[in-house]
Amino acid sequence: MKPNYCPKCSGKVKKIEKYVFECVLCKRKEYINPKPTNAIIIENNKGEILFAKRKENPKKGFLDLTGGFINPNETMEQSMMREFQEETGGKLTELKYFGSYPGNYFFQNENLYVVVACFIGKLKNKKLMAKDDVEELFFVKKSDIKFDKIAFEPLKYFLKDYLKNKK
Ligand SMILES: [Zn+2]
After folding, report:
1. 100 CA distance to ligand 1 centroid (A)?
2. Is 22 a residue of the active site?
3. For the chain, how are helix, strand and coil distributed in percent, rounded to 5?
4. How many domains in the chain?
5. Is there a single domain that holds both residue 42 and residue 116?
6. In this structure, are 59 and 17 located in the same domain?
7. pLDDT by residue (tens digit) across 59-111?
8. Which residues pair with 64 in a beta bridge?
């Protein structure tokens, strides 16, 4: 995302550093930072991985892991639990941090920088129902994962690292 006008005084903004813009009138600085998001890998007892088919754009119809954006005043863990419940109706018994992956999210004709906090989880209840921005939920055999159908680059890296560690 590249700001064009100052939200405070509507003055023109100019780039002063790689990720810093400044208003030419009031000197307000705009720092470009990624938005935190999260995603989770969950396996069933057959060792298959849970995927969510996206109901909405961006990347409608592509495969996603459950997860989403963080709300104000939430921890990464709380937001992961909330997103998972909103999208599947399910609950998690275990949540383990795996690592983070930066990426881009194209929305409303803008590129948002994101950084995805990635978790590994265990399911409490087996019964899941696609809700919210999820069209369908299903488990996929590790060898059948189609990486070209995965919605976002950071998730591909997350899945590949996860599968590598599993071997
Ligand atoms: Zn200004």
Report:
1. 34
2. no
3. 20, 40, 40
4. 2
5. yes
6. no
7. 999 999 999 999 999 999 999 999 999 999 999 999 999 999 999 999 888 88
8. 52
Going from the Cα of 8 to the center of ligand 1, the distance in angstroms, rounded, reads 5
Percent of the chain with pLDDT over 70: 98
What order do you get walking across the sheet with 20-23 strand by strand? 13-17, 20-23, 29-31
Q: Mean pLDDT score of the chain, rounded to an integer?
A: 94
The amino acid occupying position 129 is: M
How many C-alpha atoms does 69 have within 13 Å on its Cβ side? 9
> Which residues are CB-contacts of 72 (< 8 A; sequence separation ≥ 6)?
none
Q: Residues 85, 43: one domain?
A: yes
Model pLDDT, residue 167: 61
On whether both 14 and 49 belong to a single domain, the answer is: no
**Domain range for 142:** 35-166
